[in-house]
Amino acid sequence: MKFFLIASLALTALFSSCKKDNDNEKNRIFKGPEVQVHNGKASTWIQLDKNGAPLRLAVSLTDAALNSVPVGSGGEANHDHGNMENNWVLQLHPKAGMLPFYYVGMGWNPIGHEPEPIYGKPHFDFHFYMMTPEEVAAIPAYEMAKDKFDNAPAADYLPPAYFNAGGGVPQMGAHWVDPASGEFNGQPFTQTFIYGSYDGKVNFYEPMITLEFLKNNANYTRSIPQPARVQKTSWYPTKLSVVKHNGVTEIILDEFVYRVQS
Predict the structure, then answer these.
(1) What 3-state class would DSSP assign to 214?
(2) Which helix (DSSP H) or strand (DSSP E) does residue 16 occupy?
(3) Where are the domains of the chain?
(4) CA–CA dist 170, 56 (Å, integer)
(5) Which class for 165: exposed (0-12), middle (13-18), buried (19 or more C-beta within 10 A)?
(6) Which tens digits make up the pLDDT trace of 34-91?
(7) Rounded Cα gap, residues 118 and 116, in angstroms
(8) Which residues contact 43 (CB under 8 A, 6 or more apart)?
(9) What pTM does this model have?
(10) Can you list the alpha helix ranges (DSSP code H) found in 32-109?
(11) CA angle at residue 75 from 72 to 79, to 5 degrees?
């Protein structure tokens, strides 16, 4: 009897999984592999239209992940990219090959990072990298490659008014921030959108979002500041959304437009 009960439960789980996969294919949603994030899971997915153009690219985080990340611990408040316990490589499905992004580097900051008066809150960094993992891993500390960190892209390749926060972070690059963002205008940091660069090229897009904001916002959308020109012909997102449903929080890059290198 016990064997038949176990077999029945296994078949139910299998059919449920197959149905979900079929629903995803019907909606042209293609998932990257899941990774463990403390007591929960994270993954990416891309949704395509009937012609194969991108509609949405997202990072999915389960509630179990958001509820189990450590808060208020983890050492100094900085970009600790070497702490693998709180950094994850989220691979994209091969169907995302038309995008400028190779993968997502997701980092959790239990006490935020510098500058502490602005970004000293527990938050996630979502780096949508335009470089391979090997190229990102080869970016050294700022002191070892100042010329490459300080070699900024031409101004037209970054949104107007964005400014370099100074220095650079190993295995990331220089960070360009938005002076119109709330944290620079008398409001507490909740979410912001950062551009990255290294050796004259834009190398990542980065939504940076506090844990509190992710837990408390079920349906949020904002525009992504756009540069006048791009360095690579590809599809680029113009909106960012945070959506919650069925025990999952989605961080979505949305409303892609096709842009030609210039």
Answers:
(1) helix
(2) helix 2-26
(3) 24-259
(4) 29
(5) middle
(6) 999 999 999 999 999 999 999 999 999 999 999 999 998 655 455 554 566 899 999 9
(7) 5
(8) 31, 32, 33, 34, 35, 59, 60, 90
(9) 0.89
(10) 63-66
(11) 100
